Amino acid sequence: MSRSNPSQPTKASAGGAPQPFAQMGFQPRQGPHHGEAPKVRSKDTAGTLRRIWGFLKLQRRALWIVISSTVLTTALTLLAPYLIGVIIDDYVLPRQADGLVRMGLLLLAVYGLGAAFTWLQQYTAASLSQHTVRDMRQALFEHYQRLPVSFFDQRTHGELMSRTTNDISNVSNTLNQTVVQLISSVLILVGSVAMMLSLSGWMTLVTLLTVPVAAFLAKKIASYTRQYFSQQQKHLGEVNGFVQENISGLKVVKVFGRESANTGQFREMNERLRAVGVKAQSFSGSMGPIMNAMRNLSFVVIAVFGAIFAYQDMITVGIIASFLQYSNQFSQPINQLANQYNLFQSAVAGAERVFEVLDQKPEISEEEDGRMIDRPIAGDVVFERVIFGYKPEAPVLRELSLHASPGQMIALVGPTGAGKTTIINLLTRFYDIQSGSIRIDGQDIRELSKPYLRQQIGLVLQDAHVFSGTIRENIRYGRLNADDREVEEAAKLANAHGFIQKLPQGYDTPVSAEGGSLSQGQRQLLTIARAVLANPSILILDEATSSVDTRTELHIQEAMKLLMKGRTSFVIAHRLSTIKEADNILVIRDGRIAEQGTHEELLESGRFYAGLYRYQFAQGDAS
Ligand SMILES: Nc1ncnc2c1ncn2[C@@H]1O[C@H](COP(=O)(O)OP(=O)(O)OP(=O)(O)O)[C@@H](O)[C@H]1O
């Protein structure tokens, strides 16, 4: 199989260059489902890659299969052009038929094996990336469950959702395509240059002539494309936000007759998105034709210089054929690298955002876990000179003290922003106080285990949250081991049984997270049933009767009265009618207790509460 110079060089062309096995041709850059190519702080990239590696390592076997099949595919890709050259030089030109079939079969086997390894590589890479992102998603969700309320208060839910979906899908796409392509691009580049050098130094130089131009163009196009894709993502975000706002605020839009103004506004946004979309797509689409043109230019240069060198017996015709193919293989990784770099960057940024969440300190670490009270809780709650601010320098509660004896109903009233909800946030230890103490049955709650503490407290919030599932499952959320009879008993006590029975599937009616077919009041009755089932010693009712009609309100009030019996209850209410029977009404103003006493006592004192009550009475709201 000598590739020495032939005695009589012939002008022959290599015909159509075979495609390499791996799909290494140019693929127009996919619009980043992925969001704009976010900037990656380079100092973090290595660390982030190490952490992705930490997840990848869990799939050790798949990883090895991907790496070895990539190396094998590349080696076979590089071997084929060499064999074609040999066939031309040793069999075609000398008209040597002996062994030609064997060589043909060998070439076929090389292509066949190449295809098989490529398939194996793609299949395993897909499996590897899906396993890895499954593990990341799991880790993220588990971490969300353990993070403190303050973490969620500081971020929008949309942003956190996007970390679990968009960012992780970025990582998955990159693991799936980019990493494999980056490895094989580099191997092909290095390998084809080495193969070319082993055949002819001069021809290698000629082949590489067009490379700097191609690389320059590829880089320029990729940079414009990225810029336009990033703008496209921004405009897309605007359009999505506008649509979402208008759908969720549909009633307001209709009531204020804003339909046509909104349509006009949307038309403008939509037009901006179209304009930048055209630019993004046309720039990314121009990469293919331009790179093809560069490759064809390279073919011409190789053919002309190859012929000249061959006339001078410097190389064989087979070598020209090999070079034509190596130049083909060589140009593709350059496009690949230019294309994949951006995707790779945006995936690293996505992974960084995921790891940022994973790095947040969870709420309950094992060593911090506190103790339990070894007797049933009576529900004696004391706040003593409590100072607290969400930011320590801006206190919301200033030396607040209160006492609730077991079974008492304590009402919290006061202007908006006074700190009523904050008191609840502290009792449940969603936040911890800065000074003073909060005690339940004499025990400082900071020493109690948080899960234990929260088990003792039932929460019925204004924004009654219903999870996707059946009505029964939603009530059972209060106590997972409750049987069907207990669930129904709780519903009866909560005045919810009546409406549930009227639903088409009764307790098995599915409801969705948004509440769907349930009214606000019905959802509230469900959450009361949930609290009944949980049977806590301390109860918190946060403005639970606002925004429902009077009949439902009566239902809810009745249910609440039953629920509060024998439990220490804190009721936050704007409508004073709901708290007239409270044992103690605390008027909170500026983080302090401004007044306290029973309804009658406070009316008599004639201060803030009395004024508010008279005002509401005049409005017909506090009857
Ligand atoms: N998560 C938070 N981070 C920072 N500041 C907060 C947070 N929650 C509440 N605040 C601030 O703390 C103060 C007290 O708020 P809080 O929710 O306790 O008032 P409230 O009396 O319950 O009001 P409303 O009757 O309107 O519900 C307000 O100034 C509010 O802006």
Structure, explained:
There is one protein chain. Helix 2 packs parallel to helix 5, helix 5 (157-199) runs antiparallel to helix 10 and helix 7 runs parallel beside helix 10. Strands 6-9-10-3-11-12 form a 6-stranded mixed beta sheet, with helices on both faces. Strands 2-1-4-5 form a 4-stranded antiparallel beta sheet, covered by helices on one side. The protein has a two-stranded antiparallel ribbon with strand order 7-8. It is an alpha/beta fold and 623 residues long. It starts with 41 loop residues before the first helix and ends in a 5-residue tail after the last helix. The protein has helices at 42-56, 60-92, 100-146, 149-153, 157-199, 201-207, 211-248, 250-255, 259-311, 317-358, 420-427, 450-455, 471-476, 484-493, 497-502, 520-534, 550-564, 599-605, 608-618; strands spanning 381-388, 397-404, 409-413, 435-440, 443-444, 457-460, 469-470, 510-511, 538-542, 568-572, 584-589, 592-597. It is elongated, with a radius of gyration of 36 Å. Residues 153, 390, 396, 414, 416-422 line the site of adenosine-5'-triphosphate. Adenosine-5'-triphosphate binds at residues 153, 390, 396, 414, 416-422. Residues 381-615 form the ABC transporter domain. InterPro entries: AAA+_ATPase, ABC1_TM_dom, ABC1_TM_sf, ABC_transporter-like_ATP-bd, ABC_transporter-like_CS, P-loop_NTPase, Type_1_exporter. It comes from Paenibacillus soyae. It is a multi-pass membrane protein.
